[in-house]
Structures are given as C-alpha cells and as structure tokens.
Amino acid sequence: MYSHNGGRVKTRFGLLGPLAVHRDAQPLPVTGPKVRLLLAALLLRANQPVSVDSLISTLWGDSAPSSATSSLHNHVARLRRFLGPDVGSRLRAVPPGYAMEVRDGELDLEVFTAKVQQAQSAYRKEDWPVAGDLASQALALWRGRPFDDLPALTDSPEAANLLELYLRAQEWRVEVELHLGHHHDVIAELTVLTQQHPVYEEFHRQLMLALHRAGRQAEALAVYQELRHTLIDELGVEPGQAVREAHQEILSPAAEVTATAASRPCRNTAELARSGPNQLPVDTVDFTGRADELRVLTDQLEAAASGRGTCVAVISGMGGIGKTALAIAAAHRVRKHFPDGQLFVDLRGFGIGERRGAHGVLAAFITALSHPGSNVAQGHPIPEDIDDRAALLRTILATRRVLLILDNANSAEQVLPLLPGHGQCATVVTSRNTLTDLPGARHTRLEPLDLEEQRRLLSTVCGHDRVNTDPDSALRVLAACAGVPLALRIVAARLSARPVWSLSTMAGRLAAPGKRLGSLSMGHLNVRDTFASSYLALHGSNDPVEREAARLFRLLGLWPGQVFGIEQASALAERPTAVTADLLELLVDYHLLQNPNPWRYSLHDLLSEYAAERAEQEDAYESRDAARVRLMIWYAAALARSRTVINVGMSRTTVLEDEPSAPLPVFTDGQHASRWCTEEMANIKEAVRQAAHSSRPDLAWRIVHGLAGYDTTYSWTRETDDLKAIALTTAKQHGDLVGQAFMLQRIGISHVMTYHLQEAVHALQGSLDAAEKACHEDLVLTVLQNLAVAYNHLNDSTAALTYARQAIDRSHGALGENGVLLNIMAASHLHTEDFAAAEEGYRRALEIWRTHGNTNNIAVTLTDLGDALRGLGRREEALAALREARDLNERLGNRITLAECLVITGRTYLQFGQREDARGCFQSAVDIARESHLPAWIQQGIDGLKALDQPEDGAV
C-alpha cells in the first residue's frame, strides 16, 4: 500500500473499504461518483490497459447514453486534475482505452493479495508463526467491505473474490492459533465470525474444535446442530466432510458405534441394485456441452435420493435441442443413488405414433417393479381404474429409491398419474411444452448450444483434425446448424460416413438456398420431421386457438430472423393484440417461438425456415403478400409518428394514407422515438427489402421517408443509406416520380449533414426536378430550403439566399413562423459576418423551437447563436449558449452537431485567450469525429489545434 522514496510515504491508493487516495499521508479528495468509480475500475486493473467499452460498462452499466464516450473523456480529465500533475500524469491513454500506473506498495489491494499468498505458502509448510503473522498483516489492511462507497462494484466478481481471500486469511490465522494451543483465545472471535457468516463451514468447524478442546462439548455439539439446520434449510445440503470429521472427534466412542450401525443399510442397497429394473437407454458416448444444466440436474436427483424431498425435474425446449440426451446422461450419472430401479418411457407426446396414456404406462411400471412373491408377480390382476393404479404405484415407490424418466410428454395431464408421492424417488420429464402447470416441478429450459459447445460436439463426432484444418468452413457449418444438437449430429454423421467430403463441401450444401432443411437429414434423424411433429400437434388440434397459433407460426416465417413485439405480430396476422399475445405465448410454450425479452419474440433460425416452408405450402400467395403488406404499412405509420415527434414544429407532408391494422407505439418524446427506431432497425430494413418486391413497392420509400426523424440525430451512422438506395431504385423501376423526389431529398439531406456538399447539391437538384414534374408543391418548398442550407455550408451566401427567397415566395412570405427559414436566413448573415442580424434570426428561430420542444433544432440553433455572439464579442453569452448546446447534443447522441459545437466552443475560447480550454474542445472534436468517421470535422478540429500554435493574436 505504500510507496517509499528515501523512507517517506508518497502515494497510497485504497480499495479495501471506501475508495481512498493519500499523498504524503494527507487524504486527497476525489469527488463525484462517476470519477471515483472510474478510478476504482482503473486501479482494479492497475498497470493494464482498460478498454473504453469496459469503462463505459462500469460507469453506466446497461444504461449508457449515446454520449458515453465523450463523457468518459471528460471524467478522465477531471480525474487527472484531482490527482494532480505528478500522479495524474500516470493516467495515460493507451489502446484500446486507458491505463493507470501504480508503483510497488502503493495499492492496498495488491499488498493484501501478496500477503495472503505468502500466508498460504507458510500455512502449507506448517510454518505456524510466519503464517499467522502474514495473515494478520494482510487483515490489518482491511478497512471494510471492498468498494464500500461504490454500489456498482460492491457486488462485483472482484469484490466477491476479495471477500473470499479475506475469509481465507481469517481462517488461516485462527487455524494457526488452534495449532498453537490458543483455543481459549479464539472462542469469542469465532462466535462473532459464525454469526456474521452463518453458512461458512470452516469458522463453525474451528469453533466446534475450540469449544471441545476447552472442555465445552455440549456447546460444540450445539454449534454443529445449528450449522446443519442452517445448511439444510437455506441450501439443501449437509455439512461437508471436514465439519463431519470434527463432529466425530467431539462425539463419544459409543456414539461412533451408533453411527457405524446406522450406516449398514447403505451397504444393503448394492444388493437391491441387482434386482431393480434398469430401463435406461444407452448413454450418449460423446455427450457434449450442457455442463451447467447437467450439474444442476444431477444435484437435484442426488438430493432426492438422499431423502431431501421428492424431485420432479422438467426439461423443455424446441425439437432437436437435446432434452432426451441430457435426461439420459444425468440418469446414468446418478444410477447408483437409485438402487431400486430406473424406469424409462417414451410418452410419444409429439411425433409419429399414438400418444401413450397413463393407464398403460402405470401397468408397465407396476409390473417392472414387482418383486418375486408380490401379488402382481403371482398373477393377481392390476387394478383397472387409473386412480387405483396410480395409488398402487405410489405405494410401491414409497419405500424405494427409483428414478423415472418420462420422455416426450405432451402435457401435465399425461404425466401427473405417473409421479411418485413422498419418498426418495425422482422423476425427469422432457417435453416440447413448458408444463408450467405441473405442481412442484423444477424447470430447465434448453437453449441452442453456444459456439464453443457446438465446436466441441462437431469435433468430437467427426474428428478434431477435420475441424481444426478448416476453421472457416467449420464456422459456416455451425452457423447453418444454429446451435441445434440434432442438426449438428446429422452433419457430423454425414461427414463421418463420407470421409472424402470436406467441411467446405458440407458448408456449401447447407448454404444452398432452400436446401438447408433437406440437407439436415440422415436415416431416422431428420430436423424437418422433428419440427413437423411440434407444428402438426397445433395444426391438427381440435382446439381452434391452437390451429390459429399454427397459422401465426406460418406467418411469422414470412419475417425471417427478426425480433418483434405483439403489435407487429398483430399487424401480420390481422388479429387484436390481446388475441395475438395469447397465441404468441402458446407458441413459446410449445417451443416454436423464442421469448428473448418480455413481450419480445423471435423464431429460431431453422424454425424460421421451416415456418416459411409451411406458409408457402399452405397459404396462397395473395394471403402471404397481404400479411407482409399489413406489416409494412404498420412500420410506415409507426415511423411517420416517430418523425412527427422528433421533428416537432417542422412542416410535414403526409405520405401514407393507409390505416395500420394494429396499434402504433406511443412516444413520450423525441429521444424515446429515436431509441425505438434504433431497436427496430433490423425489422425496418427487412420491411424495406420486402416492400421492394411486394404488390406495394411504394411502401419502400414511404417507410424510408419515416426515418427522417431518426436521421436528424443519427445520420452520422450511415445506417439508413442502403435503405434510401433500395427505395430510390424501386421508385425508378416503377416510374414513381413522387417516390424518387422524396428519396433524392433524403439522400441530399444526409449528404448535407455529413458534409458531402457537392453530392448533396446534386441529389437535391434531382429531387427538385422530380417534385416539380410531379407538381408536389409541399415537397418543392422543402427541397428549396434544403438547397439553401447546402449552399450556406458551401459558403455561397448568394445562392443560399436565392433559394431561401424562392422558398419564402412559395410559402407566401410566412417567414416569421418558419423556424427552418429563419435559421437559413440567419446562417446567411453569419457567413457574411453580419453577426447582429444573425443573432436576431437565431433568437427568433430558437423561440419557435423551444415552443415546440424540438430538442435537436434547439441544440443546432444554440450552437449557431453561440457563434454569432462570439463574433459580437459577448463571451459569457456565447459560452452559455454553447454549453447548453453541448449538453443537449450529448443527451441526444448527435455526434455531428456535437463535433461542430465543440469546434465553435474551441474557437470562442481561443478568441478570448483561454487556450487550454480551447485545446480541450478541439481535441475532443477530433476524437469524436474520428470515432464517427466525420472527415470534415476532423479537419476543423485539427485546424483549431494548429491555430493554437500560432502567436496569441486573436481568433481562429
């Protein structure tokens, strides 16, 4: 924790308790929760680079604002100032983020960890005095719970690891005292420690031994009983071996004899195992993955066998996901715990063959469990009534330890009569339904395998060398199988059967359009048939709700690979949202649909392909096209609403007359609307692509036009450029002049916002020509305004004023209420350095934008107003306007306008002699522009930095 220079303490950093920094023994205040959290995150990885993404995650979690990167830079600058020049200079920007240099002995965490490791080494060597001394030194550094004043880190893995080391150090120090015979000295301390850590077994073991060696056997046994009850009640486990051995040390010899006698029945179970039925299918030799699920399941089954309650475990998941394989793998691993038998039945809940009813299964189980000499074995009939049979099975199982595997169940009703009552039996049920109505069940839902598990399975079945020699093709194969174990096993089996086939060959077959499901078939293994058994259970149902769910499943296949909500599905199916919500949840229960987030749904990749196949086979083209068009109209209408909310107060042209068939999202403000667009972007892109080839190609440009609001803030991402190109091409193919005019206008505006100004003028001139040919007066007016903006940016005030005046004439001279035209005219005055006229125009426009609450336009106008006030020499007013603009831009996440605001702020600081403040603004502008690929603002920031190298003679 200490850094010495000539014997004098220089700097100390403390994480073992509230964050603390000391310089020359004096506390150094580091204030602000984000700055303190930043310092802690850097100290946790002292002398190592910590990425920007990692730091943002630490500071904001899942709620990081779009301005997080620039805010992080600001927090770093503040932290350097708090630390002072000597220590602050050690906080360096290094790819891919920042690193904090910490010298030997300065950080209490590092000293503590080293002392603990040394104490552990001495403890293993049984060097008791040294181990005790080192452990005490480590514990002396502890000022409280790590990161006690930083809630974001209090429950982090790092904090948990440090707490574990602290408990170990305590444990070793006390153990040393016990070895040295100081048991009287540690009883009081151990009493407190056991109260503070009621399930930490080592402290209880030590207290038991200390009390026992102090002659207080009754109290020692009471400690054991209290620990045992706590562990069973809270964790469902017995004390560990070390505690049990301490318990035996305390017990009298007579008690040890009793304990030995009590263990004799366990030896008799080996004899029972030979007579109990074993119906388990063969275990999968190359069972791979599912390590966590397998561990949890075997723990549950072992707990049931040891008498801690009957267990019913349900494994659910889509067809082919590996439910039966997991159940059988777990069953083989716990066989020895169920010596009276292991029963298995395929209930045929899904697939070929008639479902097995409980009546017949009960008879089979009762017969299998009947020992020689029993009534059943001697020919007495099994009761005919199903309730009597279930009662007889429960009676047989009540005194035995039997494991039941009920595979491929369709419903809880099919399973309930087969379940044991109280006792030491366990049941594993697998189903494609969730069986949430099965009382007392513990549920495991299997998801697709992750990439590493898929790779291991493929390598295990078809050979590691084959996979390792062509990793790219292996990844293509894995992507095609989409984490479904059945698909992977089929591919691996086909590869094993065809040694001359390369992975590349197989990947090519799987990638052929419309051929993937056909390629995932070999012998009795068939992915399409597996999916069909789930789908046909709904399609052929007598329940009209289930048949309706099958229809919705097919329609969802028309919208591949997307995550969607209830409203979108309602539009697709043309059903009320309440009805659609129930249908979606039913599909989730059948594992035909995934539910990644509340009220959000998606089809697994392979199921999506299967659903599309069924739609093509069962639904007419007109029906499929109408469903797609309904969803496209819904997105066009939703985006039109988002545009209205984001660009509030600006003139709007209605481009959609169709009524959506489902409720539209309600946006609280522009930021909410922008977030929705971001979340839905994948669906929006799919809507544009499908519209281009539908019976309503005009919907392509109508949808894209609705993205105008989103583009206001996020044009710098270029996220929608490809959609504009698709929509423009589609409009040209169909001779749609209005569509061409709107798309050329959107393309031109995007070029203006990203400072590709010649391209902007070219696109806008084309839009103006198309709009005039189509006699679309509203659009003509808007394009004229856009051309004026473009020419202002080109510093051609004459052309800008010409187009602005044409726009004023077209709007019948209504300049006073048109905030856009006011901004344009003010910008022309700014370029000609008529700062007073510019100020007047910007203030009038600002009043309009504030009235309407148009946050983006407020930020843009404030930036330009700040520039005009700079020209008028009014420093405080200029900086106040620019500060507000910067705050708004950071909140909005508009990187273009933020970079522009920083450059103008830098120029303002430079004009008034604040060179270091100016440098910070110019550098931040360059950083943001580089991250966002904005070459014009990179250059503007660099020009500002160059100006700082000139003599101090005025502004940039």
Please give a structural write-up.
This protein is α/β, with parallel strands linked by helices and 956 residues long. Helices cover 63% and strands 7% of the residues. The protein folds into seven domains: 4-106, Winged helix-like DNA-binding domain superfamily/Winged helix DNA-binding domain (Arc Repressor Mutant, subunit A, Orthogonal Bundle), CATH 1.10.10.10; 146-264, Tetratricopeptide repeat domain (Serine Threonine Protein Phosphatase 5, Tetratricopeptide repeat), CATH 1.25.40.10; 277-445, 3-Layer(aba) Sandwich (Rossmann fold), CATH 3.40.50.300; 451-523; 529-625, Arc Repressor Mutant, subunit A (Orthogonal Bundle), CATH 1.10.10; 667-810, Tetratricopeptide repeat domain (Serine Threonine Protein Phosphatase 5, Tetratricopeptide repeat); 819-948, Alpha Horseshoe (Serine Threonine Protein Phosphatase 5, Tetratricopeptide repeat). It has 46 helices and 18 strands. A five-stranded parallel sheet has the order 10-11-12-9-13, sandwiched between helices. A three-stranded antiparallel sheet has the order 3-4-5, with no helix packed on it. Strand 3 (11-14) and strand 4 (20-23) form a beta hairpin. Helix 7 packs parallel to helix 9. It is flat, with a radius of gyration of 36 Å.
